[in-house]
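Progress note, project year one: complex with adenosine-5'-diphosphate.
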Amino acid sequence: MSTALELLRQVFGYQEFRGQQAQIIEHATAGGDALVLMPTGGGKSLCYQIPALLRSGVAVVVSPLIALMQDQVNAVQQLGLRGAFLNSTQAWSEQRNTIQAVLEDELDLLYVAPERLLSADTLELLHDTNIALFAVDEAHCVSQWGHDFRPDYLGLSVLCEEWPDVPRMALTATATTRTREEIITQLRLQNARVFVSSFDRLNIKYQIKPKIQARKQLLHFINSEHSDDSGIVYTQSRASTEQLAKFLTDNAIKALPYHAGMDPVARAETQATFLREDNIVVVATVAFGMGIDKPDVRFVAHVDIPKSVEGYYQETGRAGRDGEPADAWMVYGLQDVIRQRQFIAAANSDTAYKAHATEQLNAMLALCETPQCRRARILNYFGEQAVRCNNCDNCLTPPTTWDATTAAQKLLSTIWRLHHEYKQHFGTGQLSDILTGIRSDKVLQWHHDKLTTFGCAADVSPATWFILVRHLLANGDLNVGSHSELLFNSRSHEILYGERPVILRVSESPKPIKKTRQPANMLAKQRTPTDVPTEVFEALRTWRSGTAKEQSLPAYIIFHDSTLRAIAAVHPSTLAELAEVSGVGETKLNRYGQAILDVLKSAAT
Ligand code: ADP
Ligand code: ZN
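Model obtained:
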């Protein structure tokens, strides 16, 4: 029988295991239960696919991603594995074929949706079958606090009850301790070994900027850094996905909207276009992305602030799964903070939930406001120690800071006076006018020019007041009401009485520093060959695109860009040389090897 390493080389065409893959595979193959926490793109699939080959029987993979099952099965079939799926979208004849294959022990991998697995028919079918293992993918879907909760996942404890001897593996890219504990309890994995990988994604560069004109900033970012790339833009509302996609299209960027309110057929089409075609930008709500394993998404942009660091990290993790340099880019502003706070306050849910949501938002805001390394901050949030990364905006161009304590005290004292002397509450615009001493109609109407703080900070620009308020709201040093009015809280007192300083970043003209270490994206770049002949690479891409179209498959399922690039650099002239390239396994070599050699030969002439 082959060993795990032999299968890795032969089937997948990779030379070595990454991180803890080898230990996880060994543990599961020996029959142990496992909880696998690994970031997106870390290489989770192999962890159950190789044990599926090493143990007898079929591996049952539970996945909520019905729309992507066909692609997942296509991908394993391309590797030469015997895979099939069962879900509600299939025609009966297809289901019958799959059931037959299960009964005759002809499958390595069976993908099922949880609701389908829990149906009496499927449970009965599986009882008549030899099961190698259960893999519960996207296991964080059992978490009722999380952003992807699927009630059907709660029923999966049945696996432990009905198949106590079959090993189970739960996999997720959501890393908080809370989610981890919920998975263990709900899926009854108390005796499982927990494998936690580093959540660092070295190849992703993080940038978070103040929102000035979101659209223009986004357009400039795409045009200047990603004009021919695939990317995802996340925004909060359904309407804004459509408006923003139209704006990008009007500016010659191929962009499509995606949100949960769209007609399911249109939604599926958008997803398929994104997966199958190059250089498409999808402008989406959070409904888009789980399970999208397109490896060459070069950027993920946020034009509104996400609700939590977990969500942000999961969304940005969809960039650069192939390990090549990628960008996580975001703009956020005062309105984002106010809107999110109001959402939480208005939500029709209990106080515990609201407190949790507030805590999550605060952590996200703190990440936006920090003048320190973004990556270190994110990793700390997930309980990992980290040092400066040199691949985020704050490391590459450290922000200059200024002491805004006095300005903050003037602002807070005005808010306090408005409340106590006038019984009034106002928003940032009015406060800015009062503090800088502008006699606007609204200032005169309310006699705010009589306040002792009127004009007390004429040297501070209106824009700065907005930034200061955003910072105070982000830190919880100030509250906001349902009409965007600013409200004093107990933390405001601490600042007013000089118990806590307020340090702000100066967003204007930050000075770049000399780099002491190589940026991580340089390191990532070096992992792939640098001297790739462009014409050869393009010829291979053209061949791949034709081959993918013939089989109605996404191109990356045939070969990743990184594999094509390596082929172009090595320029093999025999099948044996081609087999050495990372990502070229046995089945793909047999299927496409000769065609690739032909492409290389004609590209050379
Ligand atoms: P995840 O499910 O954790 O997001 P995948 O299983 O999709 O990640 O793997 C991410 C990418 O890394 C895939 O393209 C996969 O083929 C590749 N990969 C996985 N393991 C290895 C390895 N040991 N060596 C090289 N590439 C790998
Ligand atoms: Zn950094």
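The radius of gyration is 27 Å.
The domain at 528-604 is CATH 1.10.150.80 (DNA polymerase; domain 1).
No further modelling is planned for this target in the current period.
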